[in-house]
Amino acid sequence: MVSNTDIIGTYNGKIDLVRNLTISPFSRAYTFSDSIYEVIPFYNRNFFYFDKHFTRLSNSLNALAIEINLQKVKDELYELLKHVTYQNGYIYYQISRGTDPIRNHIQVDGLEAETFGYILEHDYKTQELNIKIVDDLRWGRCDIKSTSLLANVMGMNEAKKENCQEIIMHRDGLITEAGASNIFFVIDGIICTPALGNNILPGITREILIELVRSEGMEIREDKFLIDDLLKSQSVWLTSSTKCIAPVRKIVNLDLNLDLNEPVMNRCIAILEKEFKSNSINL
Length: 283
Description:
Elements: E1 8-11, E2 14-17, H1 28-32, E3 35-43, E4 46-48, H2 50-63, H3 70-82, E5 89-96, E6 114-121, E7 129-135, H4 150-160, E8 166-171, E9 174-178, E10 182-187, E11 190-194, H5 204-215, E12 220-223, H6 227-230, E13 235-240, E14 244-251, E15 256-257, H7 263-278, E16 280-281
Parallel strand pairs: 7-8, 7-14, 11-12
Antiparallel strand pairs: 1-2, 1-6, 3-4, 3-5, 4-16, 5-6, 8-9, 10-11, 10-13, 13-14, 14-15
């Protein structure tokens, strides 16, 4: 495991080892989760679909009415990438409303937005997952990439006790998304994924994959789906910026074992891997 003493980070534009960065306990990210974040992958030291990630970051800021100079944000992201020697990884980048003089629900006027980020090496290899179905206990604006992730954390750590690496959440039987991913599954050759709404984060890898499979002439449905639909599926997989496509081996509380060699899923994996290697862009 990487020690945080080895991680390079940035705080309000200052580049240093994370262990040397000092953040106030009155940061609204710490006291209220009044902050958003983004995870931007890079491959061969080139960002992957940077513009899509940056647009989502900007949308999250607008949704929470956090004001910041976006050029400053870009500069910090570019600068972080210059400080590593490894080829593949990702940047975690967080923006809070700022630091209060003392904790208060209503922020004082004139707060300056606070930025924090770090860069980490990552091996983009296919992961095979066990997952568990859990109730979706999150707040009503999961389409905002906020740092308020307590329900996700609770569900994923409870599932870990059953040797699961992820969860699928539902509300009254209706599938929303995974704990840190979007979900896809195949029923009779058709790719299915829940349609976007306030209860689903618009994943960048999700968006890219949908564009790619449609360009390949594959059939895909974005719709409302029930947990019972998973029982009809031939394969299930999750997508995210760090997982790419992660096939699901087993859904433990449905007692469902899935085919890791299902052809539609494997075609999607191959398509996305090709795109990842050919469209990482040097900024």
